Amino acid sequence: MSWLRSKDSRRDSVIASPNIWKWPDIYEVENHAQDAGDAIWSELSAIAPWIGRDVVDVGCGTGFHLPRFAETARSVIGVEPHSPLLGHARNRVLEFDHVNVLQGEAARLPLESRSADLLHARTAYFFGPGCEPGIREALRVLRHGGILAIVDLDATAFPYGTWMRDDLPKYQPLLVEDFFRRQGFSLRRVDTRWVFPTRALLDEVLAIEFSPRVAARARRETTGVTLDVRYRIHWLRNTLS
């Protein structure tokens, strides 16, 4: 998904996400492999049940998660800033009359105020400080009692988080957690397993997620066709009227 930092609503707030922007087909393989046991979905449904409610997926990419929400939600809107991904997302949800995909950014959502019950952003917010305009915009769109749920990778956990920190030495996951805590978010950690049909596909995914050096390290340190990956869910209930 596109990384939405939202530093300043007057400027471009989109940080390129090279994995899905450059290699959408391989990223599709990654999406299918992730969270094989539905642990994230279980936690999300406990935090913010969406049956019969209105859902917004910010940074929806090719729309991979939209059909899952659409199974039980009253309405689903995907918002994606990167034009080439919009067609993929729209094609994915053609069978659903209650799903729409719009182009937009986190700090300028093309949505009415108080129009959603759940705003979901998966692997779209990583950076903590700088996301304040996007958080404010989410609270504008959410109804009273609605939930902003930000799902990201937990870089404190072995092994995937270790590779992330090796690849992004300036990224400090504990500072990101502190940022969201100070913004009023609660935190849940979710352990998941990624399961790939072949080792070759696992290696291809590692190659788009990490630099060549770190991808080579990850391949050496991985056996079989599975990866244990921990996520974080930062979530905030809108208490504004």
UniProtKB/TrEMBL annotation:
One of its GO terms (molecular function) is S-adenosylmethionine-dependent methyltransferase activity. It comes from Hoyosella subflava (strain DSM 45089 / JCM 17490 / NBRC 109087 / DQS3-9A1). Keywords: Methyltransferase, Transferase. GO terms for biological process: methylation. Belongs to the methyltransferase superfamily. The keyword Ion transport does not apply. CDD domains: AdoMet_MTases. The keyword Transferase applies. It comes from the Bacteria. SUPFAM superfamilies: S-adenosyl-L-methionine-dependent methyltransferases (SSF53335). Residues 56-150 form the Methyltransferase type domain. InterPro entries: Diverse_substrate_MTase, Methyltransf_11, SAM-dependent_MTases_sf. This is Methyltransferase domain protein. Pfam families: Methyltransf_11.
